[in-house]
Design a protein that fits this description.
mainly alpha; Rhopdopsin 7-helix transmembrane proteins; three-stranded antiparallel β-sheet; 13 helices; 5% strand; elongated; disordered C terminus; transmembrane
């Protein structure tokens, strides 16, 4: 029990620290997208905004939930030790699945962003109807997953029974009170949803690396209509999207490893039950930093602000020192 309390306290501090860092960075990116995007970003900024908004919601929901995931045979227990534990078990279960919707749409938004760059570089343009279609599809799939998984009955009593039987030493009901989760991991709906959630982060790098290869080949080997400046900007965006596609795959490894091991044997490794949920949120801090770094208009705005702050104490009033940008 002492170890569990220490882990829980450490993870609580992690969520507080992570939220304090990640929320301002994402809000800064949203501001840059809305007010500092050039005219040429008229279509692309909606894709950037889609990713940033989804990741902001992910941060909020992860802090609100702070889920401990325990696999017990055919059941998966979801135990909240965040602010949401003040609400009902059903409410927590619904919010957790909404969190999964944003997790899915965030990853899919990176795919359609790369598809956008691929079409612009290789074909010269992309129709707005194509962008809207891609956004609609990547929204419809997670929503369908949400609706399917929330069809009653929830059978939380089965979850509690299986979990208490598998881990009698945990005394979970005394610590967490009522809790719920997925009563069966063998149902078709659960299998499909889990396959999509875990499959996208591992298939996404394959698609993005394929598009990256095509884009680099088009820019380096084929005479395109793009200027050198546009080529450099496109290459930077592709590099950013490549890195952004790899982080979800890496961060999902604790989740996959724990799920596979726990299905074979019930090992009481408490830290492994806490790790999967917070690690999935790490890209929400890394992604906006990469976007700001590799998208030239946003990077230039930040660096100009930094230069102004540095130069204020030593600013010269001589007319010859004035420059117009």
């Amino acid at each position: 029990m002492r170890i569990e309390q220490n882990i829980s306290m450490f993870i609580n501090f992690y969520y507080i620290f992570f939220t304090i860092l990640a929320i301002p960075v994402n809000l800064l990116l949203i501001y840059l997208i809305l007010f500092k995007s050039p005219t040429s970003f008229q279509s692309y900024r909606f894709l950037l905004l889609n990713t940033a908004v989804n990741e902001t919601f992910l941060i909020v929901f992860s802090f609100f939930l702070q889920i401990r995931i325990i696999s017990a045979g055919d059941s998966i227990a979801l135990l909240s030790y965040g602010p949401s534990r003040l609400f009902s078990v059903e409410f927590n279960f619904i919010i957790y699945n909404i969190y999964n919707v944003f997790l899915c749409t965030t990853n899919l938004s990176l795919i359609i962003s790369m598809h956008y760059r691929y079409c612009v570089i290789c074909y010269g343009r992309i129709e707005n109807t194509t962008i809207l279609r891609n956004l609609s599809i990547t929204t419809a799939i997670p929503l369908a997953m949400l609706i399917a998984i929330l069809i009653p009955p929830f059978n939380f009593s089965t979850v509690v029974k299986n979990t208490e039987k598998a881990y009698p030493s945990y005394n979970l009901s005394n610590v967490y009170g009522n809790y719920g989760g997925f009563y069966s991991t063998t149902t078709i709906i659960y299998s499909i949803n889990t396959g999509i959630l875990m499959g996208i982060p591992y298939l996404m790098p394959i698609f993005i690396l394929y598009c990256r290869r095509k884009i680099f080949k088009q820019i380096n080997e084929v005479q395109t209509h793009l200027s050198d400046r546009t080529k450099k900007a496109s290459l930077d965006l592709v590099r950013a999207l490549t890195m952004q596609s790899l982080f979800p795959m890496i961060c999902l490894i604790p989740n996959v490893v724990y799920f596979l091991v726990s299905q074979k044997q019930h090992m009481e490794i408490e830290i492994a039950e806490y790790l999967p949920f917070p690690t999935c949120c790490l890209p929400c801090l890394i992604d906006p930093l990469l976007t700001i770094k590799y998208v030239a208009p946003y990077r230039n705005f930040i660096t100009r602000k930094d230069k102004r702050i540095v130069k204020i104490p030593t600013i010269s009033v001589a007319p010859s020192s004035i420059r117009t940008f």
